[in-house]
Amino acid sequence: MAHGGVDSFKARLRKAVHRARVALRKSAVDYFRGDGSDTLALSGLLLTVPAFTWGTIKIPEWISPAALVLPIVAGALLLRPASLLGLYAACAAGLIVETFVLGPYTDGPARVTPGTVLVVAACGFFGLLIAQFRARVGVPWRRGGTMLFDLRERIRVQSALPRLPKGWHREMALRPAGGQSFSGDFVVAARTNGGRTLEVVLTDVSGKGMDAASRALLLSGAFGGLLGSLPPHGFLPAANGYLLRQDWDEGFATSIHLVLDLESGDYELLSAGHLPALQLNAGTGRWEEKSGEGPLLGVYDGAQFDPVKGSLRPGDVLMLFTDGLVETHERDLAEGMDRLTGEADRYVPSGFEGAAWHLIEAVAKDVNDDRALLLVCRDA
Fold first, then answer.
1. Does residue 370 contact residue 323 with C-beta atoms inside 8 Å?
2. What is the pLDDT of residues 183-192, one digit of tens each?
3. pLDDT tens digits, 2-30
4. Per DSSP, what are the bridge partners of residue 258?
5. What is the DSSP code string of 245-290?
6. Sequence-ordered list of residues with C-beta below 8 angstroms from that of 323, at least 6 positions apart, any chain
7. φ/ψ (deg, to 5) at 171
8. Residues sharing a CB contact under 8 Å with residue 175, sequence separation 6 or more, in sequence order
9. Cα(276)–Cα(259) distance, integer angstroms
10. What is the end-to-end Cα distance of the chain in Å, rounded?
């Protein structure tokens, strides 16, 4: 019986320890995500206030009265606005205690001066603005960076091109404006018709960089869902209707839709106000513009998009790109396209292996605009 009682006690102890571990882990995860209470953080920061106050009184040569800005800055990142006000009250009380104990600032150094009060108050003001912004957005600082990283990775995954059968080569490079991580240009692609057809949509959202990134993320998800779910000629009308329903102030976009038969090499290009594609004819060595007709996406309802047809023979290359690659304030569109094709000719002998990224570097390295380039090559 005694042995059974010991085993029962050990079992209960293991269960209690397990429940405590689960509860602690859950609270830690909730706090990291911003869902948990900030009581623990508030308690810890409140304890630092008397510690700094005591240090200022006892060892003023090491801890100045302005040290109270440290819990204020930490509170701006960790606490909700209501809790932050409680921390501010404690810091104000600490300054008052230091003033009474140390005496007026005219009596010597290491006193609470008007400048000290001004610095602490300014930090508190900006800290409260940060806390209110976080509360309004609903994304705590602990989760904000992770969320942005996740959004960037989603755009990257959605822009990945599917593998092509033997005899085909594809490359894509995208460079956001100003070296940022987010871009208003994006690509969605899929192999449809049992894998025989490659459909690629290159879109340039109005604006650039972070201003266009949120709209590009929303559109890339929507366009990725539409692509392959509709007949090729129904994609751009559906995308146009989707943009119109968003009712954005700056909600237009340009887009080009490639529908390529991977067995025959025949293709159709449908354009919504986008720049023409460029095709290299391996037989003549010349570049030819290929452009469908259609208005910008998100401008008016009932728009029609007329395709242009072509064919990629062995050795041919089709190049799709956005305006940031070829058009700047210093050069017009025709000059930019001439420069792009001139640089692209250098990669003909190598079959355009690794060419997309290098072409952006050569043609539009320092351009303050989003740049995207897509190459589809048929091996000779």
1. no
2. 788 899 999 9
3. 555 555 777 777 777 777 776 666 555 45
4. 200, 269
5. HH--TT--EEEEEEEEETTT-EEEEEEEBPPPEEEEETTTTEEEEE
6. 204, 254, 275, 333, 369
7. -145, 150
8. 183, 360, 364, 370, 371, 372
9. 15
10. 85
Cα–Cα distance, 316 to 335 (Å, whole number): 23
User: Are residues 163 and 225 in contact, defined by beta-carbon separation less than 8 angstroms?
Assistant: no
Residue 376 Cα to chain centre, angstroms? 26
Contact by Cβ (8 Å): 53, 71? no
Q: pTM for this structure?
A: 0.68
Strands (DSSP E) contained in the chain are: 168-175, 185-192, 197-205, 253-261, 266-272, 277-281, 286-290, 308-311, 317-321, 371-378
Mean pLDDT over the full length of the chain = 84
Residue 101, classed as helix, strand or coil, is helix
Phi-psi region of 167 (alpha: psi -120 to 50; beta: other; left: phi over 0): left
CB 333, CB 289: distance < 8 Å? no
Report pLDDT for 237.
Answer: 95
Residue 42 phi/psi, 5-degree rounding, is -65, -45
Q: Report DSSP state, residue 194.
A: T
Least confident interval from 18-27, 139-148, 361-370: 139-148
Q: Is the pLDDT of residue 74 over 60?
A: yes
Residue 230 has pLDDT above 70, yes or no: yes
On the question of pLDDT at 82 being above 70, the answer is yes
Question: pLDDT > 70: what percent of the chain?
Answer: 84
Q: How far apart are CA 78 and CA 143, in angstroms?
A: 11
- Residue 11 near residue 4 (C-beta atoms within 8 A): no
**Least reliable range by pLDDT among 76-80, 278-282, 345-349, 370-374:** 76-80
